[in-house]
């Protein structure tokens, strides 16, 4: 079975509209944004499928005990339900699959990347009333319960295993070689979580040039976020040219050159040269 294929243009445009609307909402819905990213990836995920995924998260939350107690009790309850009875966890092979970054597939397969499994943990626990949030450790996303002075960390990729202080230190040192700093343990903003999910998808596509379609929709969703680096426009332009959309790519290259011309004239001139070269491909 191959990786999911994006939807038809009309549906893709509607998904982007809904994504942009939700990304700019006063309180962005993390699960919905991840599901809309899934709809941009997978033409088989329609509105009914998105609703069904949200309902599944509700149902999982309903299986948790009522207010089990402090942060550690919540972490243990989530591990028993999601990691134990429901079998959510990850493995090294999950890093090779696009589905591991798509929430609806993670709910179906019970497998995914650390950040997507953490989204499941956060969304289920939040619905049950837990003091829960994502924690964006460098290289490995986990989940936190409780205030800073009582914080308990859990690793959904490892079935929700509760982490000791040394465990978290080892995760960070293994990913970066640097020590764990207290600033790394704060709650992750939902929009930052979505950007990290999209960046993982872009990284997956980068090493698979034949899947430039995936790279393109992931970049386009990043561009719909309230704030994003200007260079993403250059990346989108390059992808359009790579995919044979020379005129659209040239227009985007010129637009990016206009953005950077006041701060970096040599780069702007180089990019305009790339735009001319793209237009020449039309002849």
Plain-language structure description:
With 283 residues, the chain is α+β, with helices and mostly antiparallel strands. The chain has helices at residues 9-23, 30-41, 47-62, 71-85, 103-109, 114-127, 165-176, 190-206, 212-223, 231-242, 246-260, 265-280; strands at residues 132-137, 140-145, 152-155, 161-163. It has two domains: 9-185, no CATH class; 230-283, no CATH class. Strand 3 and strand 4 form a beta hairpin. It is globular, with a radius of gyration of 20 Å. The mean pLDDT is 94. Residues 54-199 form the Protein SirB1 N-terminal domain. Pfam families: TPR_9, Transglut_core2. Belongs to the UPF0162 family.
Q: Give the CA-CA distance, first to last residue.
A: 39 Å
- Profile the largest sheet: 4 strands, antiparallel
Q: Helix proportion of residues, in percent?
A: 55-70%
| Low-pLDDT sequence parts | none
Mean pLDDT rating:
94
Count every beta strand, where a strand is a DSSP E run of 2 or more residues: 4
- The assigned structural class equals alpha+beta
Q: Number of domains in the coordinates?
A: 2
Shape label: globular
Q: Enumerate the strands of the largest sheet in spatial order, edge to edge or round the barrel.
A: 1-2-3-4
Taking all Cα atoms into account, the compactness measure Rg is: 20 Å
Q: Write down the secondary-structure element order.
A: HHHHHHEEEEHHHHHH
Percent of residues in β-strands: 5-15%
Organism: Streptomyces fagopyri
InterPro entries: SirB1_N
Family: Belongs to the UPF0162 family.
Protein name: Tetratricopeptide repeat protein
């Amino acid at each position: 079975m191959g990786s999911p294929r994006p939807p038809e243009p009309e549906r893709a445009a509607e998904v982007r509209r809904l994504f942009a609307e939700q990304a700019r909402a006063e309180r962005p819905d993390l699960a919905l944004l991840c599901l809309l990213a899934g709809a941009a990836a997978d033409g088989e995920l329609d509105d009914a499928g998105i609703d069904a995924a949200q309902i599944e998260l509700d149902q999982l939350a309903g299986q948790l005990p009522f207010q089990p107690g402090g942060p550690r009790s919540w972490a243990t309850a989530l591990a028993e339900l999601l990691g134990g009875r429901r079998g959510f966890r990850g493995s090294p092979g999950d890093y090779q699959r696009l589905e591991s970054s798509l929430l609806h597939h993670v709910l179906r397969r019970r497998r995914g990347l650390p950040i997507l499994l953490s989204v499941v943990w956060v969304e289920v626990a939040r619905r049950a009333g837990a003091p829960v949030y994502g924690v964006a450790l460098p290289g490995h996303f986990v989940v936190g319960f409780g205030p800073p002075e009582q914080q308990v960390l859990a690793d959904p990729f490892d079935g929700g295993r509760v982490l000791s202080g040394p465990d978290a230190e080892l995760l960070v040192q293994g990913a970066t070689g640097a020590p764990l700093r207290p600033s790394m343990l704060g709650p992750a903003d939902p929009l930052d979580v979505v950007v990290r999910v999209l960046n993982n998808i872009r990284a997956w596509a980068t090493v698979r040039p034949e899947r430039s379609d995936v790279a393109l929709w992931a970049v386009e969703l990043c561009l719909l976020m309230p704030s994003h680096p200007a260079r993403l426009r250059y990346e989108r332009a390059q992808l359009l040219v790579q995919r044979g959309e020379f005129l659209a790519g040239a227009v985007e290259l010129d637009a990016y050159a206009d953005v950077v011309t006041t701060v970096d004239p040599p780069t702007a001139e180089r990019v305009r040269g790339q735009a001319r070269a793209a237009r020449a491909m039309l002849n």
